[in-house]
Structures are given as C-alpha cells and as structure tokens.
Specification:
With 146 residues, the chain is of the alpha+beta class. Helices cover 35% and strands 27% of the residues. It contains 4 helices and 7 strands; from the N terminus they run E-H-H-E-E-E-E-E-H-E-H. A hairpin with a 3-residue loop joins strand 2 and strand 3. Helix 1 runs antiparallel to helix 2. The protein is elongated and about 65 Å long.
C-alpha cells in the first residue's frame, strides 16, 4: 500500500522558489558562461523536482519502503520497537513537521530513529501498527496502549 509524502506549504515554496531563482539567474549570466552554469543548474533543478514529485512511503509485505527522490530507506517490521506521532523539524525522510517517529530495536537513537511524513498520517499509523508484531509495550514511546 503506497502513501504519498506530505509536503508543508513553506517547504514546497522554498523548493519551488529555489528552482525559479536558479532558472531565472540564467538571464543574468554572461553568454560565455551559460553552458557551464547550465551543466551545474540543470541537475540541481531536476533533483529538486524529483524530490517534490517522487516522494512516497510504501507498506510492503515485510518492510516500510521510504523514497524521497533518489534517496530511499527500508525498515523491516520486525525491527520496529516503537511508533509515535511527533511534530518536529529534525532532518529525516519527511518534508513536513507532522511526522511519525519510528524507533528500531538494538540501534542507537541516531541510527535507529526515522521520521516519516505521509499525507494520511493516522491511517498510515494504524495500518503500520497491524504489521508490526514486535512493538515494545513497555516503551514510553509506544502510542498504542491496547
């Protein structure tokens, strides 16, 4: 089951604005340097577009697959320790402040914590809970008390 990544309005504005500025600057570059500028800017513009339109989260048979443009991550369901709804701006596989924190067993906080931001966060969380059999019921990070 695939869920589209949520993009906060200000992050979308920032990324689209960056592309507009990089493309607009071409009209101020001396003609002798246009080709060099295009060689640098075209890949950057394409990367931003790819991130904007190619970001999603997929609940597969045995893992969560997160994709943000060319970047991706796999998290096995059996390795998930806890799930929690969060609002923060920590760097992760999310372009929104409304996130789900996924903590993994036997990993440090930095290596074992992933934040994702699907559009239907609560629906995604319910579906994810049904697939995760190793949630730590004693963990203060677990949002499911039943």
């Amino acid at each position: 089951m695939r869920y589209k990544a949520k993009i906060d309005w200000w992050i979308g504005l920032l990324l689209h604005g960056t592309n507009v500025i990089m493309i607009g600057v071409i009209f101020t570059i001396p003609p002798t340097e246009v080709y060099m500028y295009l060689m640098v800017v075209i890949p950057m513009v394409l990367l931003i577009v790819w991130i904007l339109i190619g970001s999603y989260y997929e609940l597969r048979d045995d893992e969560i697959f997160s994709k943000m443009g060319p970047f991706f991550s796999h998290i096995k369901y059996e390795s998930i320790k806890s799930l929690e709804l969060k609002t923060n701006f920590l760097s992760s596989m999310a372009m929104t402040s409304q996130r789900i924190e996924i903590r993994e067993h036997d990993k440090s906080y930095i290596r074992g914590t992933t934040f994702i931001g699907p559009v239907n966060r609560e629906e995604f969380l319910v579906e994810l809970k049904h697939r995760c059999k190793n949630l730590d019921s004693r963990s203060k990070y677990n949002v499911f008390d039943n």
